[in-house]
Amino acid sequence: MVNQQKAQPQVGPGVKPRGRPRSFDRATALEKAVMAFWEHGYEATSVSDLTRVMGIGAPSLYAAFGDKRSLFEEAVRVYGGTYGSFSGRALEEGPTARAAVERLLREAAAEFTDPGHPYGCLVIHAATNCTTPEVEDALRRQRNASISAIESRVRADVAAGELPPDTDAVALARHAAAVFQGMSQQARDGASREELEGVAEIAMAVWPRAGTHAG
Fold first, then answer.
1. Terminus-to-terminus CA distance in the chain, angstroms?
2. Which of 26, 162, 184, 194 could cysteine-pair with 120, CB 3.0–4.6 Å?
């Protein structure tokens, strides 16, 4: 009989031993993806950029997160629950629409200029030069949801007599959103926290008060 021996795996230069794929910390890798998308935007951040900053190979990225768009959607959710969560808290916790928006803008001045992470707002900046309709639409819906939240607070204050009855809730909400979005870009262009706090102060000076006419 022929003695059949089990073939031994080849080991040597240029030969990679088989085994389990290298593991990685998913949360850490995702955090790095958040930073990459925040700094460069969705369109300008390639898969190769992501694998480099996340410290993983493309197969691991696809296996753990799906495609680039799926990874971005998860990154936006992480951002919204961490760095960007101040905006939701401000609009929910402010006793009045005015107080809520003033807090929103003042905290934006601090958050948008924090040197511990990319400047500005990920949801705003990631849409720059975006040519992927699904991503562009998702970010637009998120920004519009914030405008609707401000408008709802304004309408509630009008009903409660905190604002004049002729207050244009739509225009006032869009004004606040425009200032917020502009502050994000100003931060990326080098504006300081103090400079953006000045912008917030001027923005609030135009808000109508109870007992006055909005127009």
1. 103
2. 184
Residue 136 sits at the vertex; the CA angle it makes with 124 and 178, to the nearest 5 degrees, is 35
Give the tokens for residue 18.
């088989």
| pLDDT tens series, the chain, 215 aa | 444 444 444 444 444 444 345 567 999 999 999 999 999 999 999 999 999 999 999 999 999 999 999 999 999 999 999 999 999 999 999 999 999 999 999 999 999 999 999 999 999 999 888 889 999 999 999 999 999 999 999 999 999 999 999 999 999 999 999 999 999 999 999 999 999 999 999 999 999 987 555 55
Dihedral sign for Cα 182, 186, 188, 193, please: negative
Rg of the chain over Cα atoms, rounded to whole angstroms, equals: 24
